Amino acid sequence: MSLLALILATSAPAAVGDPRQEARAQSLELEIRCVQCENEPIAQSTAEIAADMRVLVRERIAAGDSDEEIRAFFRRRYGDYVLFRPPFDARTWALWAAPWLLGGAGLAAIVAIRRRRSAAAVEYAPEEGER
What architecture does CATH give domain 2-130? Predict the structure, then answer.
Protein backbone atom coordinates (compact mmCIF):
# COMPACT_ATOMS: atom_id res chain seq x y z
CA MET A 1 0.00 0.00 0.00
CA SER A 2 2.80 2.43 0.85
CA LEU A 3 4.50 1.63 -2.46
CA LEU A 4 1.35 2.71 -4.32
CA ALA A 5 1.20 5.95 -2.32
CA LEU A 6 4.85 6.62 -3.11
CA ILE A 7 4.29 6.04 -6.84
CA LEU A 8 1.26 8.34 -6.87
CA ALA A 9 3.10 11.04 -4.96
CA THR A 10 6.06 11.03 -7.33
CA SER A 11 3.88 11.02 -10.46
CA ALA A 12 1.69 13.93 -9.35
CA PRO A 13 2.98 17.34 -10.37
CA ALA A 14 4.01 19.67 -7.60
CA ALA A 15 1.35 22.19 -6.74
CA VAL A 16 2.08 25.81 -7.48
CA GLY A 17 2.27 27.85 -4.27
CA ASP A 18 -0.33 30.48 -5.15
CA PRO A 19 -3.95 29.20 -5.31
CA ARG A 20 -4.64 31.45 -8.33
CA GLN A 21 -1.66 30.03 -10.17
CA GLU A 22 -2.74 26.51 -9.24
CA ALA A 23 -6.20 27.22 -10.68
CA ARG A 24 -4.56 28.55 -13.86
CA ALA A 25 -2.43 25.41 -14.12
CA GLN A 26 -5.43 23.13 -13.69
CA SER A 27 -7.43 25.12 -16.23
CA LEU A 28 -4.62 24.99 -18.80
CA GLU A 29 -4.14 21.28 -18.20
CA LEU A 30 -7.75 20.74 -19.26
CA GLU A 31 -7.22 22.74 -22.49
CA ILE A 32 -4.07 20.95 -23.63
CA ARG A 33 -4.39 17.56 -25.31
CA CYS A 34 -2.13 14.63 -24.46
CA VAL A 35 -0.12 13.91 -27.59
CA GLN A 36 -0.02 10.19 -26.81
CA CYS A 37 -3.64 9.63 -25.70
CA GLU A 38 -4.97 12.08 -28.33
CA ASN A 39 -8.48 12.65 -26.94
CA GLU A 40 -7.62 13.21 -23.32
CA PRO A 41 -6.45 16.39 -21.62
CA ILE A 42 -3.10 16.20 -19.90
CA ALA A 43 -4.89 16.68 -16.57
CA GLN A 44 -6.57 13.28 -16.94
CA SER A 45 -3.92 11.34 -18.84
CA THR A 46 -1.69 8.80 -17.16
CA ALA A 47 0.91 8.80 -19.95
CA GLU A 48 4.45 9.80 -19.05
CA ILE A 49 4.49 12.55 -21.66
CA ALA A 50 1.34 14.04 -20.12
CA ALA A 51 3.09 14.16 -16.76
CA ASP A 52 6.02 15.94 -18.43
CA MET A 53 3.60 18.37 -20.08
CA ARG A 54 1.92 19.09 -16.71
CA VAL A 55 5.33 19.86 -15.24
CA LEU A 56 6.06 22.19 -18.17
CA VAL A 57 2.77 24.04 -17.62
CA ARG A 58 3.64 24.61 -13.97
CA GLU A 59 7.21 25.65 -14.77
CA ARG A 60 5.99 28.18 -17.34
CA ILE A 61 3.44 29.58 -14.87
CA ALA A 62 6.15 29.89 -12.21
CA ALA A 63 8.34 31.67 -14.79
CA GLY A 64 5.59 34.26 -15.24
CA ASP A 65 4.23 33.28 -18.67
CA SER A 66 0.65 34.21 -19.48
CA ASP A 67 -1.92 31.59 -20.43
CA GLU A 68 -1.64 32.63 -24.08
CA GLU A 69 2.15 32.34 -24.00
CA ILE A 70 1.86 28.84 -22.54
CA ARG A 71 -0.65 27.82 -25.22
CA ALA A 72 1.65 29.27 -27.89
CA PHE A 73 4.60 27.35 -26.44
CA PHE A 74 2.75 24.03 -26.70
CA ARG A 75 1.38 24.96 -30.12
CA ARG A 76 4.89 25.68 -31.44
CA ARG A 77 6.21 22.48 -29.93
CA TYR A 78 3.40 20.06 -30.89
CA GLY A 79 1.28 21.87 -33.49
CA ASP A 80 -2.35 23.07 -33.46
CA TYR A 81 -3.58 19.59 -32.58
CA VAL A 82 -2.33 19.88 -28.99
CA LEU A 83 -4.99 22.48 -28.16
CA PHE A 84 -8.60 21.38 -27.74
CA ARG A 85 -9.62 24.82 -29.06
CA PRO A 86 -7.14 25.68 -31.80
CA PRO A 87 -6.95 29.33 -32.88
CA PHE A 88 -8.89 30.53 -35.90
CA ASP A 89 -6.43 31.29 -38.70
CA ALA A 90 -5.79 30.47 -42.37
CA ARG A 91 -4.74 26.89 -41.55
CA THR A 92 -7.64 26.05 -39.22
CA TRP A 93 -10.60 27.80 -40.86
CA ALA A 94 -11.91 24.51 -42.30
CA LEU A 95 -11.86 22.96 -38.83
CA TRP A 96 -13.95 25.80 -37.42
CA ALA A 97 -16.25 26.03 -40.46
CA ALA A 98 -16.90 22.28 -40.81
CA PRO A 99 -19.73 22.03 -38.23
CA TRP A 100 -21.54 24.98 -39.82
CA LEU A 101 -21.05 23.67 -43.35
CA LEU A 102 -22.18 20.16 -42.43
CA GLY A 103 -25.18 21.50 -40.53
CA GLY A 104 -26.15 23.71 -43.48
CA ALA A 105 -25.78 20.81 -45.90
CA GLY A 106 -27.96 18.61 -43.69
CA LEU A 107 -30.61 21.32 -43.39
CA ALA A 108 -30.58 21.86 -47.17
CA ALA A 109 -30.99 18.10 -47.71
CA ILE A 110 -33.97 17.97 -45.34
CA VAL A 111 -35.63 20.93 -47.07
CA ALA A 112 -35.03 19.39 -50.52
CA ILE A 113 -36.51 16.02 -49.46
CA ARG A 114 -39.58 17.66 -47.96
CA ARG A 115 -40.14 19.74 -51.08
CA ARG A 116 -39.87 16.67 -53.29
CA ARG A 117 -42.31 14.76 -51.12
CA SER A 118 -44.84 17.59 -51.08
CA ALA A 119 -44.55 18.03 -54.87
CA ALA A 120 -44.94 14.29 -55.43
CA ALA A 121 -47.94 14.04 -53.14
CA VAL A 122 -50.87 14.63 -55.48
CA GLU A 123 -54.14 15.21 -53.79
CA TYR A 124 -56.67 12.82 -55.25
CA ALA A 125 -60.27 13.92 -55.41
CA PRO A 126 -62.85 11.27 -54.50
CA GLU A 127 -64.81 9.76 -57.38
CA GLU A 128 -68.33 10.87 -57.95
CA GLY A 129 -69.74 7.68 -56.50
CA GLU A 130 -67.58 7.84 -53.40
CA ARG A 131 -68.85 11.19 -52.16
Answer: Orthogonal Bundle (1.10)
